[in-house]
Design a protein that fits this description.
With about 160 residues, the chain is of the alpha/beta class. Helix content is about 30%, strand content about 30%. It is built from five helices and eight strands. Strand 7 and strand 8 form a beta hairpin.
Length: about 160
Amino acid sequence: MKHEHPEAIAALPGKRMGAGVLFVDERDRALLVEPTYKDYWELPGGVVERGESPYAAAVREVREELGLTVSPGRLLVADWVPPGMYPTDGVMFVYDGGTLTAEQTSAICLQAEELRSWAWCDEVEAADRLPALLARRVMAAHRARGENVTLYLEDGRAIA
């Protein structure tokens, strides 16, 4: 089998990738975090580093940001995001973190240089704290979790 040249592969366009985790509480509210370096909230998670899988990035980011060591469940959504909020397009993954117990919740220890606070948010509160794109993604992830499906999104909107 003939392989492509490494130079040709290196010249291909790259995509930004991010991975997050949807945690819920016993009232089915989503856990959102407030970064110190942004003016909006988001799901726990972050950038997928070079050579790292999206799943591994989600696990690492939750450990770094919240001090929790978790093994998230299945993929809830994959969301292709066009340029706009950022200058390049990207792909964002959200995994199912399940329901956090009171013990797990009390063990949350924020990484102070990255996160200002966290909160359990219902749909209305999440919509108030998140930019429209992220609100659509979180609501889609919540829906996918409840329906036991995985959704493909573009700009936070489900594609049939």
